[in-house]
Amino acid sequence: MEDSTRDGPTLMSVRDDLIRQEDTIVFSLIERAKYPRNCNVYSTSFLSEIGDVVESPSLIDLFVKESEDLHAKIGMYDNQAEVPFFPHDLPKPIFTPQNQAHLSFLNPVASASANVSKLIWKMYLEQLLPLLTQEGDDGNYASTLACDLLCLQALSKRIHYGKFVAEVKFRAAPDDYSFHIRNKNSDALMELLTFEKVENIVKARVENKGRLFGHNISLHDGEEDGYKVDPCLFSHLYGEWVIPYTKLVQVDYLLHRSLT
Amino acid sequence: MEDSTRDGPTLMSVRDDLIRQEDTIVFSLIERAKYPRNCNVYSTSFLSEIGDVVESPSLIDLFVKESEDLHAKIGMYDNQAEVPFFPHDLPKPIFTPQNQAHLSFLNPVASASANVSKLIWKMYLEQLLPLLTQEGDDGNYASTLACDLLCLQALSKRIHYGKFVAEVKFRAAPDDYSFHIRNKNSDALMELLTFEKVENIVKARVENKGRLFGHNISLHDGEEDGYKVDPCLFSHLYGEWVIPYTKLVQVDYLLHRSLT
């Protein structure tokens, strides 16, 4: 949001941010695909089975929670664009935020309401990972977890960016939205926010980024060039989850936005 | 190291790993370049100036140390390919390592000796960041730190991978190395490990990856296409630091390797 630091985000700066975030998502997923599924990381019985702890969160619960605690200490969640998966009992930042300009851009009630973290978590673990990774276990749990954290954070940031999209759209044309917000008409809002042509452009672009970033040039005789991850996975991810979840966030944000 | 899980790394698997790690380095640096310098993150006076704590490590010291503690708990440093910047007082892993195959590949004495973490840290903060980032402060310290951690870890992993390179090369041709190791002749070892033609291929390849991953397609009228980071920075990084540091690691590893 380099061009928006002073006056808050604009339609153009939000669009640029969304496009840049595509790179982060595509690359994070390609990095995760280096490792096999490593199911133990997601199992709530793994830690209790090996008897090292009494309670049994999964490794991913434990790692993401502790990572978010650490990120909270350095002020990550002072930024309205960052949404934690485990928001309870986050520690306070060890210094006061330096950049106050963004803090009040979103409507706080609407921003708190528009949260699809649980949907993202479930989608990533149950639907995306089986498509992204090969079955198997190579024991590289720490690297797997580090990659999972980056993927989850990148997806969450991108999807919850719908709040900024909704806010800038509302400010640009409040009359278009106010009537439907007053009538709590989520279908009409959804329709206002849906541009199939634009969605198709986005899907084609992320697929293309998957092709560009994930191109595997063969180094050994007899092997063909290929992709680290099937590029279609990225358009599928956007079409099935990222775009629909972003629109859920936008509609929920608008429905809870004060009209004054 | 997918094809090396059973028998330990091979010349071919190490080469593949190194090439794959280039992607991680190039992409991490491009991500860091999204944010300006944000000097406060590296200042040992920042936290004490704002009066929130008594002692004054820099934010980056504090964040990398705590991140490594967390990574140690999930077993990151059971993997000989991962080298922490703050190795003292690391917590024990909360579970026993699942993948024992790699644990004994490197010679432990040589592996402990061949450590250039302090060089990498200093190079990253003092030389690379000024080339990579624009001057300025946008207050996004948490995101900046998260990116710095990824860059530092990717560089450290790549450079310390020299230990694996040295070990596989030694095993493939012990007679070529033993004489110089016995005579502690580091110059002769350095010469044995230097292939200028290969180094030039590597530099050209990372520059090309910088061009591919960092290509900025203009979205606004009147703007020209460009690169998120000057692609030459990547060949410079490899030529000035990554390749020379890797060779330091290799020579130091070999000099401390037992010949039995």
Your description of this structure?
- Chain A is an all-alpha fold and 260 residues long.
- The first copy, chain A, has a single domain, classed as Chorismate mutase, AroQ class superfamily, eukaryotic (Chorismate Mutase, subunit A, Orthogonal Bundle).
- Chain A is built from 11 helices and 2 strands; from the N terminus they run H-H-H-H-H-H-H-H-H-H-E-E-H.
- Chain A has a two-stranded antiparallel ribbon.
- In chain A, helix 10 crosses helix 11.
- Chain A starts with 10 loop residues before the first helix and ends in a 5-residue tail after the last helix.
- Chains A, B: It comes from Zostera marina (Eelgrass).
- Chains A, B: It holds the Pfam family CM_2.
- Chains A, B: It is found in: Cytoplasm.
- Chains A, B: GO terms for molecular function: chorismate mutase activity.
Short characterization:
With 260 residues, chain A is mainly alpha-helical.
